[in-house]
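Work Package 4 report. The design task specified in the project plan requires that, given a folded chain encoded as structure tokens, an amino acid be chosen for each position. We show below one input record used in the internal validation round.
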């Protein structure tokens, strides 16, 4: 028997929004129950409609604002209300970074049971056209005889938002979105394209077309012609990530480049390598890391989750040696390649599983004076639980998830006795709820 829909879900409700949630929704208390309202801001009175009811909390979507927050702004993107690519365009830029800083400090106190001795000023850069990495979903809709290109919808992730522009994407890519749709609409087999991976270096743009069936010579030629007109590099991906290969221009290198000009370092990377999405913030972040670590000529530094050497190579210019460890063999090769190309002979890179206690224990006798950790969203629990095996004087933790940073800070401070001396946020993803942060721990 089909469960009857709760009539309460259909009725508009007026509520006062008390605060902001970690994922960018307004939080109201209605009859003692927490309600998350998509699109609402703190200190607003709103009319909303319930979309979901659960035992411990409810969810709703904004219908109208009765009393506006002074920080509410008009979203720049015409697709913002539907598209799931951004969640904070209705909140002004300074307020966004303030909320992210407040979230970090709240999590450190509640989960980490610690407070930084000083709070670092937030790092900010360009708010628009900053995003150099993205994955655009693609779907051919037979009924419309048209191709959709965009991000998933906010409230219905099964569906793709049909976008004509994206003001957070790299400007050169934003300018080509409608042309991309027109390109795929002219394909003999438009249903073969499942997604387009976007990667931008300092000078070049790469698009990786994931195709589910072999492309006809005619469709490949259309991609090549598009690459010529837009001045993009075109890659094909017929299967897994290892199948990515350059289609156009044939004579070009497979690698893109980005620089850390303050350190005179140039990195080469493959379009499907992990790199930071925001070049401006990445440069500021590297400089802040060097400042906080206070590297000395005799320091030997351990860089965990080193990737292609984004922190390793700049650090190597200021200390005796850097040892980078990473879980991906491909990224270890990339880090070594970049060290060689930049003439850095005081680095070495190794592949290891950094969730394996034995791997951490093997570092026990190495003379590392300082450690940098830049883990994935899951954090670095295994490392921090056994940090006494390494016993650095300074540990700099770069985090893409403040919840796991706070969890790991609890271990570092309250188990191993480190002081959390400085912490702050970096606006790597403006207009989203994503929080990038950095924290310095000292013995």
């Amino acid at each position: 028997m089909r469960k009857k829909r709760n009539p309460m879900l259909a009725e508009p409700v007026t509520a006062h929004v008390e605060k902001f949630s970690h994922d960018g929704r307004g939080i109201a208390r209605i009859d003692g129950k927490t309600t998350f309202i998509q699109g609402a801001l703190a200190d607003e009175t709103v009319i909303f409609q319930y979309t979901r009811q659960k035992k411990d909390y409810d969810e709703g979507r904004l219908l109208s604002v009765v009393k506006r927050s002074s920080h509410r702004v008009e979203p720049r993107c015409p697709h913002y209300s539907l598209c799931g690519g951004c969640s904070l365009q209705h909140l002004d830029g300074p307020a966004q970074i303030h909320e992210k800083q407040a979230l970090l400090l709240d999590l450190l106190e509640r989960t980490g049971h610690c407070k930084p001795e000083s709070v670092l000023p937030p790092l900010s850069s360009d708010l628009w056209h900053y995003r150099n990495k993205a994955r655009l979903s693609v779907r051919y809709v037979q009924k419309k005889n048209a191709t959709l290109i965009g991000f998933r919808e906010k409230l219905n992730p099964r569906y793709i938002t049909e976008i004509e522009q994206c003001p957070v994407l790299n400007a050169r890519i934003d300018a080509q979105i409608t042309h991309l749709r027109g390109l795929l609409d002219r394909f003999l087999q438009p249903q073969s394209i499942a997604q387009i991976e976007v990667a931008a270096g300092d000078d070049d743009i790469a698009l990786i077309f994931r195709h589910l069936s072999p492309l006809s010579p005619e469709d490949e030629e259309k991609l090549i012609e598009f690459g010529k007109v837009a001045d993009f590099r075109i890659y094909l991906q017929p299967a897994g990530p290892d199948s990515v290969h350059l289609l156009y221009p044939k004579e070009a290198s497979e690698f893109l480049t980005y620089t850390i000009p303050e350190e005179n370092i140039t990195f080469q990377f493959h379009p499907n390598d992990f790199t930071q999405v925001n070049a401006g913030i990445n440069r500021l972040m590297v400089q802040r890391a060097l400042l906080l670590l206070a590297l000395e000529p005799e320091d030997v530094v351990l860089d965990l989750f080193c990737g292609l050497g984004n922190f390793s190579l700049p650090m190597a210019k200021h200390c005796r040696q850097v040892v980078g460890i990473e879980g991906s063999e491909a990224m270890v090769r990339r880090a070594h390649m970049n060290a060689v190309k930049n003439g850095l002979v005081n680095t070495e890179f190794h592949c290891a599983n950094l969730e394996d206690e034995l791997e951490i224990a093997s570092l026990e006798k190495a003379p590392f004076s300082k450690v940098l950790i830049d883990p994935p969203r899951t954090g670095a629990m295994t490392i921090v639980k056994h940090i006494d095996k390494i016993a650095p004087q300074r540990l700099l933790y770069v985090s893409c998830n403040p919840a796991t940073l706070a969890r790991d800070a609890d271990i570092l401070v309250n188990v191993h006795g480190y002081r959390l001396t400085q912490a702050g946020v970096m606006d790597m993803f403006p207009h989203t709820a994503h929080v990038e942060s950095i924290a310095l721990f000292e013995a």
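The chain has a mean pLDDT of 95. Validation will be extended to a larger panel in the next phase.
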